Amino acid sequence: MTPHGTVHWSELMTRDTAAAIAFFEEVAGWRVEPMPMPDGTTYHLAHAGEVPVAGIFDGSDPMFDGLPPHWMTYIAVDDVDAACERAKGKGGEVRRVFDVSGVGRIAIIVDPTGGVVGLMTPADQPG
């Protein structure tokens, strides 16, 4: 399990996954593999050697209208719901809380300065 308070995952939402993949394979030396999703979309897993380090996905879905391409960082927390309550108590805003099977419970929050970040209680995963 990723320790509380550390960066757990980062992902790029872009409307040109092929260009992003080519860029990061060259610049960062990543190996990127497609991962078909149950909804018919493809999530791309970036690896540094054998270690998965980031994800890249297509942000063309209308739910992302108005959002520019961007990287999202997810910070591991022991309890997403409790962390959301602490965030609200300190002037933060909780935008969305959801579960991803096999991945964990995730919240998208905005800190008091306007910075957007994800919080995640990762699912127990072997290794």
Write up this protein.
- The radius of gyration is 15 Å and the shape is globular.
- The chain is 17% helix and 46% strand.
- The protein has helices at residues 17-27, 80-89; strands at residues 7-14, 31-36, 42-48, 51-58, 70-76, 93-100, 104-110, 116-122.
- The protein has an 8-stranded mixed beta sheet, with helices on one face.
Q: Would you spell out the secondary-structure blueprint of this structure?
A:
Blueprint: E1 7-14, H1 17-27, E2 31-36, E3 42-48, E4 51-58, E5 70-76, H2 80-89, E6 93-100, E7 104-110, E8 116-122
Parallel strand pairs: 1-4, 5-8
Antiparallel strand pairs: 1-5, 2-3, 3-4, 6-7, 7-8
Biggest β-sheet strands, sense, barrel: 8 strands, mixed
Backbone CA Rg:
15 Å
Helix content: 10-25%
Spans of 5+ residues with little confidence (pLDDT < 50)? none
Number of helices: 2
Provide the structure class.
alpha+beta
- Please report the total strand number as a whole number: 8
Q: Shape from CA axes?
A: globular
* Rounded mean pLDDT score: 94
Order of helices and strands: EHEEEEHEEE
Cα-to-Cα separation, first versus last residue: 9 Å
Strand order of the largest sheet: 2-3-4-1-5-8-7-6
Described by its quaternary structure, the protein is: single chain
Percentage beta strand: over 45%
